[in-house]
């Protein structure tokens, strides 16, 4: 129950069932999912550790609501971590790894075509977890995975943008091609190209919601 509940709540946060800044009430989650209180609290703790929820004094558990400046800081850190991993990835990568990435990328592309965005989300996570497993530094790979999960509510703001999603699909295949090659610079460039668009889209969305209140920390 715990793993399923955590995954279900993560999906609900990522896809806006619980919007940014909203409170999540234990009793309502218990009722909706038929879960025990300890399971709900464990799931909350796990999602708090993943950077998706936050506990506020006298207010309970809320969905994290990033400001654009916080998004920029998160993406700056992701660029540092992910390009560092690319620089440390031995090339060409093992054929079994690139074959697995190719298979995931094709499934991801089909999910995009089908508009199955929850599958898109999970396959994107799986793709990058496999990708960064090749960097030779498990702690670095873990840091990347943690920050990628925190960024998922930011990434999904572009899921219904067909042109953007086509670009994402192509970027996955560009990463695979670079991992099959011998140029570290090509891999770093492919990784760097894959990051900025969602952060820019989030800033636009935030400014539509709050107008000029975009420099709040």
Largest sheet geometry: 2 strands, antiparallel
Please give the number of β-strands.
2
Radius of gyration: 18 Å
Structural class: mainly alpha
Walk me through the structure.
The protein is mainly alpha-helical and 217 residues long. It is 71% helix and 4% strand. A two-stranded antiparallel sheet has the order 1-2. β1 and β2 form a beta hairpin. α4 (68-88) packs antiparallel against α10 (196-210), α6 runs antiparallel to α7 (138-155) and α8 (162-180) runs antiparallel to α9. The longest helix is centred in the middle third of the chain and has 21 residues, at 68-88. The chain is globular, with a radius of gyration of 18 Å. 32% of the residues are buried. The model is unreliable at 213-217 (pLDDT under 50).
Task: Write a short abstract of this structure.
This protein is mainly alpha-helical. The chain contains ten helices and two strands; from the N terminus they run αααββααααααα.
Keywords:
217 residues, single chain, globular
Helix/strand layout:
Blueprint: H1 2-14, H2 26-33, H3 37-49, E1 53-56, E2 60-63, H4 68-88, H5 95-114, H6 117-132, H7 138-155, H8 162-180, H9 184-193, H10 196-210
Antiparallel strand pairs: 1-2
């Amino acid at each position: 129950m715990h793993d399923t509940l955590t995954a279900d709540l993560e999906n609900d946060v990522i896809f806006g069932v619980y919007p940014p800044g909203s409170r999540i009430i234990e009793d309502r989650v218990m009722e909706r999912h038929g879960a025990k209180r300890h399971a709900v609290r464990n799931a909350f703790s796990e999602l708090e550790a993943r950077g998706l929820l936050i506990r506020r004094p006298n207010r309970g558990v809320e969905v994290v609501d990033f400001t654009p400046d916080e998004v920029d800081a998160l993406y700056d850190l992701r660029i540092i971590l992910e390009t560092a991993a690319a620089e440390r990835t031995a090339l060409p990568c093992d054929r079994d790894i690139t074959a697995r990435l190719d298979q995931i990328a094709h499934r991801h592309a089909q999910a995009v075509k089908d508009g199955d965005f929850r599958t898109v989300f999970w396959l994107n996570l799986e793709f990058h977890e496999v990708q960064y497993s090749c960097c030779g530094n498990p702690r670095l790979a873990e840091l990347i995975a943690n920050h990628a999960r925190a960024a998922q509510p930011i990434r999904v703001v572009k899921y219904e943008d067909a042109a953007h999603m086509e670009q994402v699909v192509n970027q996955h295949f560009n990463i695979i091609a670079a991992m099959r090659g011998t140029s570290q610079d090509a891999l770093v460039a492919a990784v760097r190209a894959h990051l900025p668009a969602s952060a820019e889209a989030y800033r636009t969305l935030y400014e539509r919601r709050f107008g000029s209140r975009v420099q709040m920390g």
